[in-house]
Structures are given as C-alpha cells and as structure tokens.
Design a protein that fits this description.
The structure holds 2 protein chains of 2 kinds.
Chain A lengths: L4 E3 L2 E4 L5 E6 L6 E7 L6 E7 L2 E4 L8 E4 L6 E5 L8 E8 L9 E2 L3 E5 L1
Parallel strand pairs in A: 2-11
Antiparallel strand pairs in A: 1-3, 3-8, 4-5, 4-9, 5-6, 7-8, 9-10, 9-11
Chain B lengths: L3 E3 L4 E4 L4 E7 L6 E7 L6 E6 L3 E5 L2 E6 L4 E6 L8 E8 L4 E3 L3 E6 L1
Parallel strand pairs in B: 2-11
Antiparallel strand pairs in B: 1-3, 3-8, 4-5, 4-9, 6-7, 7-8, 9-10, 9-11
The chains are: A mainly beta, B mainly beta.
C-alpha cells in the first residue's frame, strides 16, 4: 500500500537555527498539505499545494516559514530561525486532487523539539 | 465558535465495551466527514470516510452522520486494547479540511 513518506522522523535543534522537513506524497497525488500539530490538539493547516502551486498559505508564518514543491512531487518545509514555540509535530498529507470526493492520507510526521 | 467541536476526553472503557465518539459542527457547507485514528507519536490514519447522512459500517466501526443536527459519531464495537489512541474527526467543504481536537481513548484489558 502506498504511503506518504516524511523525513526526518525526529529533529532536535536550538532556537535561531534553521530546520527543514521533507515529504514525498503518494504517487499520483496532486494535492499536498503541511500541517502542524501541537500535543492535545488537532492538525492546523500551514500550506496547501496543488501540483507545484500554493493554493492556501494563509496560516503560514511567512516571516520564518517557507515551503516549496518545485516539480509538483515532493516538498520541503523550512523554518528559519526556529523558535521555542515551533516545537510540535509537523505532518504532511496528500490527496489525489482537490475534487470534492477525495480525502487525504497522512505521513508519520516529523517531531520537532526546539531548545 | 470553532468550526468543529470535539470532546477531548480522556475516555476510558473496559475491553469489549461499545465506544461512542462524537463531534458537532456549525458549517452547513461541510459535505464530507472523516474519522482518523492517531497512535501516540504517529501520523493520523484514515479510519472512515462518508459523504452522506446515515450510517456506514466497516468491521467493528460504524460512522454516523446527522446533517440536520450537524452531528457525527463513531461507534466502536467490542473495543480492544489496540483501539487505545486519539480519534480525530475531520470535515471537508470540498476545498478545505477542518479537524476536531481529538478524543483520547483508553481500552483497559
């Protein structure tokens, strides 16, 4: 069964450092999502891509976060500089497209700890 | 008011019990309803997906949607210790997903 791949699984960094997370969606999935999940809460959408284009980044803190999906396949989420409050699980998800009858499938996540 | 409300629990039940998990919502534009299971330190796993009012059954799991009351439920029959996890409800307008905060469930052997 196809899965969403993410790396690294865990990342510990010091505040003010740069961190990057990678996601490879299920093959053929045009829509890719990055979420942040704080312990005890539901996922919060950071950015949504349709192919290589950003379709929603309204909740992305653009002063420190950036995301790209240059070839419309895999994607990278970057934080620079990291802050203590960025400690969370970062989840990537994909769906076949934005059509109404599709749902999304999540990767295992990257757990970030900022010291 | 949040788009999706979900009681965080925690909920603790004995093995074999029937579990009922619930979410309410306020947006009539929601068309698609999902339940995810999330084990500790893992990504959410899709359990059930439905787009209409009524019931949908899959093994020990039944998803129920009542659009008139804006209320969805997940029932787990014959609960097992392996069902211990956080259960997230999610809804989709067709363009955007909204998640509940999750209900933590523990099934005691």
């Amino acid at each position: 069964e196809a899965e969403v791949a993410q790396s690294p699984r865990y990342k510990i960094t010091e505040k003010s450092q740069a961190v990057a997370f990678w996601c490879d969606p299920i093959s053929g999935h045009a829509t890719l999502y990055w979420y942040r999940q704080i312990l005890g809460q539901g996922p919060e959408l950071l950015v949504q891509f349709q192919d290589e284009s950003v379709v929603d980044d309204s909740q992305l803190p653009k002063d420190r976060f950036s995301a790209e999906r240059l070839k419309g396949v895999d994607s990278t989420l970057k934080i620079q500089p990291a802050e203590l409050g960025d400690s969370a699980m970062y989840l990537c998800a994909s769906s076949r497209d934005r059509a109404t009858q599709e749902t999304q499938y999540f990767g295992p996540g990257t757990r970030l700890l900022v010291l | 008011q949040k788009e999706v409300e979900q009681d965080p629990g925690p909920l603790s039940v004995p093995e074999g019990a029937i579990v009922s998990l619930n979410c309410t919502y306020s947006n009539s534009a929601f068309q698609y309803f999902m339940w995810y299971r999330q084990y500790s330190r893992k990504g959410p796993e899709l359990l059930m997906y439905t787009y209409s009012s009524g019931n949908k059954e899959d093994g020990r799991f039944t998803a129920q949607v009542d659009k008139s009351s804006k209320y969805i439920s997940l029932f787990i029959r014959d609960s097992q210790p392996s069902d211990s996890a956080t259960y997230l409800c999610a809804m989709n307008t067709g363009n955007q997903f909204y998640f509940g905060t999750g209900t933590s469930l523990t099934v005691i052997p």
